[in-house]
Amino acid sequence: MTNEVIKKLSEAALDVRKKAYCPYSGFAVGAALLAKSGEIYTGVNIENAAFTPTNCAERTAFFTAIAKDERDFVAVAIAGGKAGEEPEDFCAPCGVCRQVMREFCGDAFVIILAKPGEEKIYTLKDLLPQSFSPRDVLGEKAKRQKRR
């Protein structure tokens, strides 16, 4: 993955996080998901007073892409921090988001943690080394299931 793509995704995540709906935590997260098709899908965290229905930015991006019939993904950039301020630190995906990534992505899927002017790059295997995947349930059928 080129530095240009990394920067483009990071900037998209940093920009979209301004649209997060986070009245309870005050913690705004943005995600920019790159599909193999070249399309970029963004998402923000969307909180709910009941808390359980809250959706993370990464899952919002993935679910938007899935609704647009995308199934192959290359990378995601994530940026998070106090709403109304530039992020001061990196924001890693939660466990639920890592598991959603694993549903649609392989070990080499790239996860970019972004803050202004700096990125950290990981693979899904780095952040979820002993994952439970569609292959655990479907075996070899998992590859065919991913395509439909």
Structure description:
The protein is of the alpha+beta class and 148 residues long. 34% of the residues lie in helices and 24% in strands. It is built from six helices and five strands. Strands 2-1-3-4-5 form a five-stranded mixed β-sheet. Strand 4 (110-115) and strand 5 form a beta hairpin. The mean pLDDT is 94.
Short description:
With 148 residues, the chain is of the alpha+beta class.
Total of DSSP H or I helical runs spanning 4+ residues: 6
Shape: globular
> In terms of per-residue confidence, which ranges show pLDDT below 50 for 5 or more consecutive residues?
none
Largest sheet, described in full?
5 strands, mixed
Beta fraction? 15-25%
Number of strands: 5
Q: Approximately how much helix is present in the residues?
A: 25-40%
Alpha-beta content class = alpha+beta
What strand line-up does the widest sheet have?
2-1-3-4-5
The end-to-end distance, rounded to whole angstroms, is: 27 Å
Mean pLDDT value: 94
Please trace the helix and strand order, writing H or E for each element. Answer: HEEHEHEEHHH
Rg, Cα atoms, Å: 15 Å
Give the arrangement of secondary structure elements.
Blueprint: H1 3-16, E1 27-35, E2 40-44, H2 57-67, E3 73-82, H3 95-104, E4 110-115, E5 118-123, H4 124-127, H5 134-138, H6 141-147
Parallel strand pairs: 3-4
Antiparallel strand pairs: 1-2, 1-3, 4-5
